């Protein structure tokens, strides 16, 4: 518009009119860039509100769900430690029983009466039979009931 006024009043284009036209084009370009920038900031605001209103509640729900999973894992770790303790205890008892009741060769000798092979005879006197008391056993169902939420087969 400014250029049109310059042409109407000035018959001859002057260097000032060219500078005004260049300045006007630069201002229009800057206004276009400002509009693009405002659109970008509005998109960021809408994305932020979407994150705050929709995504964060979903993340909170997943965190609560994962806390239940972590609790199950903690229970399972405690159970595995208890079973490992029982296994090591029973292993010690088996080793003691093997020591007190003789080795495998002694058992074979007793089966075959060691009559023909004198080297297998035991130089120790026969041991007195010891009674064995079973340790207190546990049931897996006591720790992980079959109707436990999140099990693979809840109805079994």
Automatic annotation (TrEMBL):
GO CC annotation terms, alphabetical: BLOC-1 complex
Domain of life: Eukaryota
Signal sequence coordinates: 1-18
TM helices/strands, residue ranges: none
UniProt keywords, alphabetically: Signal
PANTHER family: BREAST CARCINOMA-AMPLIFIED SEQUENCE 4, CAPPUCCINO
Protein's name according to its UniProt entry: Breast carcinoma-amplified sequence 4
Gene: BCAS4
């Amino acid at each position: 518009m400014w250029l049109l006024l310059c042409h109407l009043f000035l018959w001859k284009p002057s260097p000032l009119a060219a500078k005004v036209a260049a300045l006007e084009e630069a201002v229009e370009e800057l206004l276009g860039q400002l509009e693009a920038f405002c659109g970008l900031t509005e998109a960021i605001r809408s994305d932020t509100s979407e994150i705050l209103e929709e995504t964060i509640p979903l993340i909170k729900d997943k965190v609560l769900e994962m806390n239940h999973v972590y609790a199950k894992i903690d229970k399972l770790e405690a159970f595995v430690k208890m079973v490992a303790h029982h296994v090591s205890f029973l292993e010690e008892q088996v080793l003691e029983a093997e020591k007190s009741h003789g080795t495998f060769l002694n058992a074979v000798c007793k089966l075959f009466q060691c009559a023909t092979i004198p080297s297998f005879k035991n130089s120790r006197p026969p041991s007195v039979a010891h009674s064995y008391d079973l340790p207190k056993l546990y049931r897996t169902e006591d720790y992980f009931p079959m109707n436990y939420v999140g099990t693979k087969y809840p109805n079994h």
